[in-house]
Specification:
Blueprint (H helix, E strand, L loop, with lengths): L13 E5 L3 H12 L3 E5 L16 E4 L11 E6 L4 H14 L2 E3 L13 E5 L2 E5 L6 H14 L4 H18 L3 H13 L1 H7 L3 H16 L9 E6 L10 H7 L4 E4 L5 H4 L7 E4 L2 E2 L2 E2 L3 H13 L3 E6 L9 H11 L3 E4 L4 H9 L11 E6 L11 H4 L4 E6 L5 H10 L7 E6 L7 E6 L3 H8 L5 E5 L6 H4 L25
Parallel strand pairs: 1-2, 1-4, 2-3, 4-5, 8-13, 8-14, 9-10, 9-13, 15-16
Antiparallel strand pairs: 6-7, 11-12, 16-19, 17-18, 17-19
The protein binds S-adenosyl-L-homocysteine.
The site of S-adenosyl-L-homocysteine has 24 residues, from helix 12 and strand 19.
Length: about 475
Amino acid sequence: MDQLPIALKLQGRKVVVTGGGTVAARKTDLALRAGADVLVVAPELSSEFITLEKMPKFRHRAGTVQASDLQDAILAFGCTEDDDADTRLYELAHAAGAMVNVPDNSELCDFNMPAILDRSPLIVSISSGGASPLLARIIKERLESSIPARFGELASFLRHIRERIDGRFADLRARRHFLEKVIDGPAADLVLSGDIAGADARVDAELDAWFAPTSNKPVGEVFLVGGGPGDPDLLTFRALRLIQRADVIVYDRLIGSPILDLVRRDAERIYVGKRKNQHELPQEEISKLLVKLAREGRRVLRLKGGDPFIFGRGGEELETLAEAGIPFQVVPGVTAASGCASYAGIPLTHRDHAQVCIFVTGHAKGGRPDIDWEVLLRPNQTVAIYMGLAALPELTAEFLARGADPTLPVGIVENGTKLNQRVVTGTIASITGKAHDAGLKGPAIIIVGTVVGLHEKLAWFKPGEGAQDIGRRTPEPLAIAKA
Ligand code: SAH
């Protein structure tokens, strides 16, 4: 982030606009709507100023800008569409200590004007930092249709009930939970339908119910959420909703920063990543931690890579919660095999290639993976091996020793679905060397089967050229064992 978005209070402050055309009229309109005293300096004003001119806080001085125009100004907009005149304004404004914006001239901008979605008092501003105002506008248009027009009234309503609510809650977390219930519940529906009195009564009733001695105070709960393989676009809507609601998040190394960025800023973050050979927090401790946090009345987000029920030990954590009587919900996620296969253009099943798909782990509880080789070697199937990179030499050797065709295609997808995704393909005989040469470190999924041959034809995802290491806040320290 190289700019700081803020919402500026302009009531009683002076804003100077130079120019009398369309752009000047738009900036004048915005500044007046925000409550500023606006001085427009221009030889003459276009017809677009007709209504603006009648506003009480509007002043016009005919002429070109002078140092005295900028006295006490806080902001200045250079809209003359004349570079020399705009540069002069820029200099005068700086001398007077005001910040300047000259539309379409980033060199003369101390700040950029965002695209604005106005649901006052709720204001959404979208800025591309000058990179593409058009993109910002398109996003604004999308939000325009998804944020109901009455959201402004909802914001005003929340302001209106604020004192009443603040007075009842000493506990800030409980207050937030209550407010979230209001915003998501029938009271907000009443506001959005225009029935403010009804909404008011509803809030009172809900407050009484909340504090009634018989009511069950909300205990904490745990959301076991699958975060998918890395691309935040692969989150489910439900995952996103719960991610933004949790008070505390417990996550491990597969969760990258693009997904962590979606977590509420004030939520506590607890990293419990298991690094290979360096068990930071044993599984039982993680489960106990979840119970403890939930018993404190918190909403705990247990965020896992992929799907929590596929090699995620989610089941074990839930068993502990169930035994402790903690309520929980589970949200599935796109599992690595599925996400990586899609983004690498490798269909896991295909009528010409594979009628069966097997998910297997290459890593086992203490030592060698205990795999049913007979099942793995069957024809017409795809085998997706999780956590197999470290044992790749042993795995491929075992395939060959048990009679697999040395030309059987194998693909490895590293950092699948992320901007630094890499795909290495080969055969059961060649893949170990190729993976070693490529310096694959993981996380990686190994896909064995003739479907891998389709990768070349079906690959569509173009990971970012020189993509930064976006998805791996804490890199997986798996290294290929030397062959
Ligand atoms: N619950 C997860 C799997 C956890 S086991 C899921 O459903 O996907 C961890 C293994 O998942 C890694 O060793 C790797 O084999 C695989 N994996 C997870 N994310 C991956 C990614 N983005 N790209 C490739 N493999 C990944």
